[in-house]
Amino acid sequence: MEALAVKPVIKVAALCGSLRKGSFNRGLLRSAIQLSKESVNGMEIEYIDISPLPMLNTDLEVNGTFPPVVEAFRQKILQADSVLFASPEYNFSVTGPLKNAIDWASRPPNCWADKAAAIVSAGGSFGGGRAQYHLRQIGVYLDLHFINKPEFYLNAFAPPAKFDSDGNLIDPPSKERLKEVLLSLLAFTLRLKEVLISEDFFGVTCARRHRLSTDISQGESSSFSLWENGGCSMAHRFCEDRNSLADNRFTGPRTTRPCSK
C-alpha cells in the first residue's frame, strides 16, 4: 500500500498594527489562529509581537548587524512562507508601529521578498479599508504578493456585536469570511512556492523572475523561452496558470533590483 501524500504545511507570520491590549485587529488574528487549528488544514499561524521593536534608526545597524530584538523579528519573517496583516486605519493609512516593523524587515537583505500575503482589518464604517490600500502599495516595492480576493473589512461597531469586551471575534458570519481569507492565502502560498521552486530548478535569475511575473500579468509568453532545453512541460503549465496567477496578485511591472533570500 502506497504511503499517503503528506500535505505541505505553510508557516504564516501574523502581524497586528495596533498595540492596544483589547485591539479588534488583534482579535481577528486570534480568531485566525483558532480557525487554522480547527478547520484550515496545512497552515500554522504564529503571532509576531512588533511592540518591542525600536523606531527605525540606521545608526542602530553596526557592521551589517541589527539589534537582537530586530534580528529576531527579521528571522521570523524570513522563516515564514506568507504573512497575515491585521491593522486598523489611522488617518487614512497604516499605523506607525506596523510601518516601522515593515521598514525594519525591509532593510537589506529584504525579508519580505517573494512571500504571499493577506490583509484583514476592523474599524469604523469602512472597516480599515484605506489602510489596506496603502499596505498594498507598500507591498509592491517589497515584492510582497497580496491575494486580491476575498477582501475583509469589518465594521467593528455596527450591530450585531462583532467582538466581546476582550476584543475576541464572536460574529459567526465574520468568522466564516475570515476562514475564506485563510483558505485563499493557503492556496496562493502553495502555488507561489511552486512557481519559485520551479524557477530555481530551471535556473531563472532574479531579474528574469521579475520579467516573468510581468509577462504573466500581461498575458505574454516570451519569458517561457528561458526554459527551453528541458523546461517545456513546466512552461506549458505556466501558460495554463498565468491568468489565474494574475488574478491573485501579479499586477504590473516590478522592480529588477536583486532579490534577497
UniProtKB/TrEMBL annotation:
Origin: domain of life: Eukaryota
InterPro entries assigned: Flavoprotein-like_sf, FMN_Rdtase-like_dom, NAD(P)H-dep_reductase
List keywords of the entry alphabetically.
Flavoprotein, FMN, NAD, NADP, Oxidoreductase
Q: Which top-level enzyme class is recorded in the Swiss-Prot or TrEMBL entry?
A: oxidoreductase
> What is any one of the record's Gene Ontology cellular component terms?
cytosol
- EC numbers for this chain: 1.6.5.2
Q: Where is the NADPH-dependent FMN reductase-like domain?
A: 10-156
A GO molecular function assigned to this protein is:
NAD(P)H dehydrogenase (quinone) activity
Family, per the entry? Belongs to the SsuE family.
Write down what this protein is called: NAD(P)H dehydrogenase (quinone)
The record lists the organism as Populus deltoides
What is the organism lineage in this UniProt record?
Eukaryota, Viridiplantae, Streptophyta, Embryophyta, Tracheophyta
